[in-house]
Amino acid sequence: GMLMVTARAPTNIAVIKYWGKRDESLILPINDSISVTLDPDHLCTTTTVAVSPNFESDRMWLNGKEISLSGGRYQSCLKEIRQQAGDVIDENKGICIKGEDWQKLHVHIASYNNFPTAAGLASSAAGFACLVYALSKLMNVKEQYELSAIARQGSGSACRSLYGGFVKWAMGNDVNGSDSIAIQLARETHWSDLVILIAVVSSHQKEISSTTGMRESVETSELLLQRSQNIVPKRIKQMEEAIRNRDFTTFAKLTSADSNQFHAVCLDTSPPIFYMNNTSHRIINCIERWNQSEGTPQVSYTFDAGPNAVMFAPNRKVASLLLQRLLFYFPPLPGDDLSSFVIGDQSI
Ligand code: DP6
Description:
Blueprint: E1 3-10, E2 12-16, E3 21-23, E4 28-29, E5 33-37, E6 44-51, E7 59-62, E8 65-67, H1 72-84, E9 88-90, E10 95-97, E11 107-113, H2 123-138, H3 147-152, E12 166-169, E13 182-186, E14 195-200, H4 210-220, H5 222-244, H6 248-268, H7 278-294, E15 300-302, E16 309-313, H8 316-329, E17 340-347
Parallel strand pairs: 7-11
Antiparallel strand pairs: 1-6, 2-5, 3-4, 5-12, 6-11, 7-8, 9-10, 12-13, 14-16, 14-17, 15-16
Helix pairs in contact: 1-2, 5-6
The structure holds ligand DP6.
Ligand DP6 is lined by residues 14, 17-19, 27, 33, 122, 124, 155-157, 210-211, 304-305.
């Protein structure tokens, strides 16, 4: 008999960025980060995991194509989940698997992203969160609170996708990473007026992965040291308070400033890393000019390790004004691929 579980996990967008590790194999960060988890209807990964005594090895397919599971990150997740596995009894199917049996049984994994992989829209976040969650259900893992520490070992940002709403990843102090986990700050319903818009500027694969980029920043950027030690701790407190109070002005200022500082760190890295392109810069300009002319932030923007813009508006009315502006000001430049606004207006 075969046992199968399907799960879905949304991606998350950091408003205070994670950039830099203090431990590469456990994936422990050099600062706390805060993110907003998107609505799973839009940017998500769907993963089916199956177990059968007939499977001879662990295998995985991503968007229909087989990929290797030999990498350390997949191996860590599989190993940790197997260690936590419980008994599974399905009388209808005549299945009885003891917790320790999982060490010998193999799984097949099929995963689909409904958005471009590695275009800087945090596909690894949704991917590993979904994988770990689906496996935990298949293997009847009891300790759900440990899942974020396991997903973290797949991809740092993945630990935040196990919760909805507003999430903080506490960097922790422990050398083994036990306290480097995600914590929900507020549920999605806490700030239901907030709208997120995403402009897919390019769906091409980024040139430098986050993993490589942050390694090079840690090695060469003094600005990153300054940021992680002296700037982010203050911003985390301010951001937590802004979220608690639904204070859009503070939330917007911090979000844009932190994105800009992250990209400044990329420029401060040697050799410099460019994730944003000309279209990204024009989107920033367009928003900054609007905010300036109104005297207070109408909307904010943030960019991860790629050129796509994620924008926040305080409500649907302002979101639709933003959309109008962007569409009006954006006759695409030659060579730019401003293909679509994937999300018209998305309430979280
Ligand atoms: C810019 O989580 O993709 O999106 O831990 O090496 O897998 P690894 O990196 P990843 O980095 C995300 C970086 C970021 C900022 C963020 O999401 O906080």
